Amino acid sequence: MQVTETNRDGLLRQYKVVVAASDIAGRVNGRLQELSQQVNIPGFRPGKVPFDLVKKRYGQSVMGEVLERTLQDSSSEALTKNGVRPAMQPKIEITSFGDNQDLEYTLAVETLPDITPIDFKTLALERLVAEASAEDVEKAMQRLAESSRPVEPIKEPRPARSGDVLVIDFVGRIDGQEFAGGKASDYRLSLGSGTFLPGFEDQLVGAAAGATVTVNVSFPEGYGNEKLSGKPAAFEVTVKEILERKEQAIDDAFAKGLGFESLDQLKERVKADIGREYGAVSRSRLKRVLLDALSTRHDFAVPKGMVDAEFDGIWKQLMDELKRSGEKPEKDEEAMKAEYRQIADRRVRLGLLLAEVGRKSNLQVTPEDLNRAVMEEARRFPGRERQVIEFYSRSQEALSALRAPIYEDKVVDYIVEMAKVSERKVTAQELMADPDAPAAA
């Protein structure tokens, strides 16, 4: 095999690769010899099929198989010999090939850049810290009690009001025709919850038990079901029962109903949960400050193909979201593309930097790390834990999606350990505030 570099421009490398015809022929003949020992052809004993017959019958398909394999092997060898670490899948274009001819092709690839990380001990970072106050715990207890308020049928007949739970049957129609998913019986709808289409619940306020109400609403533009998107619909709703929420006392009985021994134990659990939430936000904000600092202090070329791919993903997600919401962009398309291309460039740059730090520091995602992540995912779906675990056990792609953020967090932790990190106590409001929000005048 002959490899000749034909172009070197920034991170781009191009090579001319020539594989001798004799090498191709040897691979083809070797594969045909294997087949002659394996194929079954009527009239011949196994392993006794004439080579010429095997070549005539399978030669074309074997040539295609050998060509594909040769391109993979020779391109990988060419990159290795030239010390190239490809950023993305190389592009191969065959320029010459035929019977008894050498295989010639061009190999174009963008390389990973040479990255020299800064001395992380020179980084000065600030971690915001907030503690769960008595007021925080009290508000959380009130929210918990509100969500746990029991319901019971109203004692005296009255119209439905916001906060009530209605037991309803409904049938939805578009242009007089029922549609899939638009029908239910004995459905419990909490008025004011916003779980149904905009305006649906409002039109049931004031309805009496036993009444049938026609609710006219429209599916929003960009609705998940394209057949319903933007369409006006009429729902025939029968109110079968009105339930009202009762007050929920915050006492030991309430705590025991939630599986705790006492109210104090429940409060301790709530305080710990708030503390974990604040800790996660604190870590997220520290990570953001770190990434901003790393982005500012590292300047190196990034592979255009990687930036293009990242930008395409961001842009598609943005367009899909605008379509679903029906919102109009605030800027013209060119200005938006320029802005999001900068975001793509930053993401690629930081991704490459963190990957290089992890590689040089020999950081690894262990099976134990993945198992913990899978269990955390499973806990997010109470009652379906087994299905979640089985899903990840069958899908390497899903496991890879978990591996990436775990690896990134390991690298971030590694850098933070070396940086100079100071702590500043703040209120919960300061911690949870949007760091991008404009400062109050």
- What radius of gyration results from the CA coordinates? 32 Å
Level-2 CATH architecture of the largest domain: Orthogonal Bundle
| Structural classification | alpha+beta
CATH class of the largest domain reads Mainly Alpha
Low-pLDDT stretches: none
Overall structural domain count:
3
Query: By CATH's scheme, which homologous superfamily of the largest domain applies?
Result: Trigger factor, C-terminal domain
Instruction: Give the helix level as a range of percent.
Output: 40-55%
Mean pLDDT: 91
Profile the largest sheet: 5 strands, antiparallel
Helix-strand string? EEHHEEEHEEEEEHHHHHHHEH
Compute the number of helices.
11
For the terminal residues, how far apart are their CA atoms? Answer: 70 Å
> What proportion strand?
15-25%
Outline: extended
How many strands in all?
11
Task: Explain what the structure shows.
The protein has 441 residues and is α+β, with helices and mostly antiparallel strands. It has three domains: 2-110, Alpha-Beta Plaits, CATH 3.30.70.1050; 150-245, Chitinase A, domain 3 (Roll); 255-432, Orthogonal Bundle (Trigger factor, domain 2), CATH 1.10.3120.10. It has helices spanning 21-36, 51-81, 134-147, 252-257, 263-297, 304-325, 333-360, 367-379, 385-394, 396-418, 428-432, and strands spanning 2-9, 12-19, 91-96, 103-110, 124-129, 151-153, 165-174, 177-190, 212-218, 232-245, 420-425. The strands form three sheets. Strands 6, 7, 8, 9 and 10 form a five-stranded antiparallel beta sheet that branches. A four-stranded antiparallel beta sheet has the order 1-2-4-3. Strands 5-11 form a two-stranded parallel sheet. It is extended.
